[in-house]
Amino acid sequence: MAELLMRGLLILMLWGLAVYEARAQSCSTAPEAQNLQACSQLAAAPSGADASLRWQRIELQGAGPQTRVLALGVPDVQALELWQAQGGEPQRRWRLQALDAQTARPLPGPRLALPLSLAPGRNTLWLGYRVHGDGRLDPQLLSPGAERQAQQRRDVLNGLIFGVMVTLAAVVATARWVGGPSAYLAYVALVLAQLLMLLHTEGYAFAWLWPELAGWNQRAPLVLGLLSLAAHAAFAMQFLQMRQHMPRLWRAHALLLALLLPALGAVLLPDAVRLGVLMGLLYAPLALGAAVQAWRLGLPGAPLYTLGAGALLLVSVLFFSLGVLGLNPLPSVHFLDYPKIGALLEAAFFSAAFINRVRAEQRRQAEQRLRRLAEAEELLALEQQRQAALALAQRQGLRLAGASHDISQPLASLRFAIEALKRSAAPGAITQHLDHTLAYAQTLLSDLIQQTRAELPSGPDRIALGPWLREQLAQHEAAAAARGLRLRLAPCRAELQASQLMLARVLHNLLGNALRYTARGRVLVGVRRRPGALELQVWDSGPGLAPAQLERLQQPFERGSSAADGGHGLGLFIVKSLCEQCGWTLRIHSRLGRGSGFCVRIPQAPITVDTVSA
């Protein structure tokens, strides 16, 4: 983040050096470039001029016959008149109207400029104009060479600004797999809207894109401004995940977007500019509120998003509006440069916020992958412990049975001795009691041997596959229904001997992969008879796999190309590991565009089995 901020500050410094233009403070000391602000004052319209315009009277002192360019610094006007007096009555030199095409201008170029001839001595100019938003002009008097150089500097600088913004958008687009496609599309739309707005404010749009559509050119600022506002609102809703984290602000932004549609349809109204200003004023507190709330919630990228939104509102909106009204807070920067500065800062901070989120998401996914791998290893360890404990119990039972068998032998000898004693003499009470006790002890030992033999497991779990598979598939029915897939189980009456825990883990991983990567169709589960084995099969109608992918996807952290919903690339690896642990065989059948089949062969002697048609 610090590196990105340093780059942003460096760009800002280069921009400040490039846009700075030294301007003269008086009308007598700058023969190549003169700022006429100190030489002009508000005045009444000359006789015969349009009195509804805003008029400035400019007094100049010419040292000799001179050809100059009156640079007005704006791409267009709604109305303009220039009158000049050289020792006599004022005469109108130029007149431009809102519907005049680009070709009607006396000098070609993105920004409006008028040629002017100055006679020796005193020259008086009357400049009347009306611009968008009732703004103020800041005219300059330049030599033709100085005016060309100034335009060349602007062209180079604007090209740099546009190139940086496009590059930032491209950098963000390369990470579109994180954060959701909607946020990236909204960011691209925002950059495009900002670029179109800058093309218009710099005059390139009227000069290159629609030079004959003067009427549209007058309405373009409002339309492009509303589109930029809509793109900014849509980007904020997606990037900050407002619907999840800020439902009230999400509804407010959605309402604002709904209001923008009729606002765009009202661009032909006389007071449409005021409507656009009103929409901007409504959005400003929403944007700031969303930024503050995101910062408070600790959302990834929220600080950088706040800086980008703040730069846009402060520089592009506030400073630009003050400049239009003649209250430029930074006189060394032309007021038309503020939208470029704000748009560049916004794009830089927003792209940095995206990269910050990408890194945070990558760290989160890496942690999840490690947890999944640890869970798989823990599961294998637990199964190994269970098998070891079972083997230990078997050995202990066998030892107990052996000991009981050894003890029963001398007991039997004692019984034979007692029988002989009975035949040789009359039995007494002690002999009878001894006989009963020995009989009881022998019965207990015999029962213990039988019980141990009955409790000894003869092998792995015995599983009735039909009911067991139905129970396992029921856990995936909701996920299948949510994706519009049919989850089917082929009838099966087979039984097999295997570890339920290991078999369930294998089946759940295969079903999870099949449902994740199948866009439409079905997933079929069933069992087939194989020589000396049963084969559990999972078939899907997904995109299929190329032969080169099969080996790769059985490695850890390898995902298919369509893994857009959070898979971690461990499913097949876990299945392969469990199969190797249990002595099973995994086979994969797949055809591109036709689907895939995953078959797990479990060696044993089946009782009965129904086949599955793939």
UniProtKB/TrEMBL annotation:
Keyword Phosphoprotein attached: yes
Gene Ontology CC terms: plasma membrane
InterPro entries: 7TMR_DISM_rcpt_extracell_dom1 (IPR011623), HATPase_C_sf (IPR036890), HATPase_dom (IPR003594), His_kinase_dom (IPR005467), HisK_dim/P_dom (IPR003661), HisK_dim/P_sf (IPR036097), Sig_transdc_His_kin-like_C (IPR004358)
Reaction(s) catalysed by this chain's protein: ATP + protein L-histidine = ADP + protein N-phospho-L-histidine
Domain Histidine kinase as annotated: residue spans: 402-606
Molecular function via GO: histidine phosphotransfer kinase activity; phosphorelay sensor kinase activity
Domain of life of the source: Bacteria
Alphabetized Gene3D superfamilies for the sequence: 2.60.40.2380, Histidine kinase-like ATPase, C-terminal domain (3.30.565.10)
Membrane-spanning segments: 156-178, 185-210, 222-240, 252-269, 275-292, 304-326
Entry's EC annotation: 2.7.13.3
Keywords: Coiled coil, Kinase, Membrane, Phosphoprotein, Transferase, Transmembrane, Transmembrane helix
Coiled coil regions in record: 357-386
Primary enzyme class: transferase
PANTHER family, per database record: HISTIDINE KINASE, TWO-COMPONENT HISTIDINE PROTEIN KINASE
Protein name: histidine kinase
Native source species: Inhella proteolytica
